[in-house]
Write a structure and sequence with these properties.
19% strand, two-stranded antiparallel ribbon, six-stranded parallel beta sheet, single chain, Rossmann fold, alpha/beta, 47% helix
Length: 219
């Protein structure tokens, strides 16, 4: 493998958070409760302002609230949600950058703490195939409210370490918007901060990493 490119999704390729966007529309479609919507917004807000950093617990809480939804129901809902709502949140600059990498023969991977079914839909919109994200547990085609594996969360650098050991790429690119992903960015041959939060912006400037600002979304 010549080069591999890891893109964070929330805030990096998409405006906002995929989980929160999907849960809002699941609520509107009566597949999620108002209580789930309120709690999802509350925990996401705390995480955004840095008052709560346990992504593992946030993921476990979110997964529990999806208990009882069948995969068929979820897939049907996600097709509509992503076509009508999430697609509009993808940054045009991100689309172009992914295209540039692919034209150079680079292998692009979406790496996210958000739930795998959601990130797989993002990948499809971007013409990508490989996704590494938090897996939801399924039994008999129904989401159990549990997780099928560890939360990606703060483990992104460990995931990338294992990936690079297996495939031995010549170069590694990494793009993220959050300071918590510094361990991931430090592992990359080419680390890039995209729409960075304040702490990552300062850190990137000290390290002289490139900083990109994505703003344009489809009208």
């Amino acid at each position: 493998m010549k080069s591999v490119v890891f893109f964070d999704v929330d805030g990096t390729l998409i405006k906002g958070n995929v989980n929160t966007t999907v849960i809002w529309h699941l609520y509107r479609m009566r597949l999620a409760s108002s209580w789930l919507l309120a709690r999802s917004a509350f925990w996401y807000l705390l995480w955004m302002v840095g008052l709560y950093g346990d992504l593992d617990e946030i993921a476990r809480r979110g997964a529990r609230e999806l208990s009882g939804i069948s995969r068929a129901q979820m897939d049907k809902a996600l097709e509509l949600i992503f076509k009508e709502h999430v697609q509009k949140k993808i940054f045009e600059e991100g689309r172009k950058l992914i295209g540039d990498h692919r034209r150079q023969g680079h292998h692009v991977v979406l790496l996210s703490s958000s739930f795998e079914p959601f990130i797989e839909k993002v990948a499809r919109l971007l013409g990508l195939e490989e996704v590494i994200a938090t897996k939801l547990a399924l039994i008999g085609g129904v989401y159990t409210g549990g997780l099928a594996d560890e939360v990606i969360g703060g483990r992104k650098h460990k995931v990338v370490e294992a990936y690079t050991k297996q495939f031995q790429p010549d170069e590694v690119y990494a793009y993220s918007d959050r300071y918590q992903d510094v361990p991931l960015l430090e592992m990359a041959t080419h680390p890039v901060a995209v729409n960075p939060d304040m702490r990552l912006r300062r850190f990137a400037r000290r390290r002289r990493w490139p900083i990109l600002i994505f703003k344009r979304v489809p009208v």
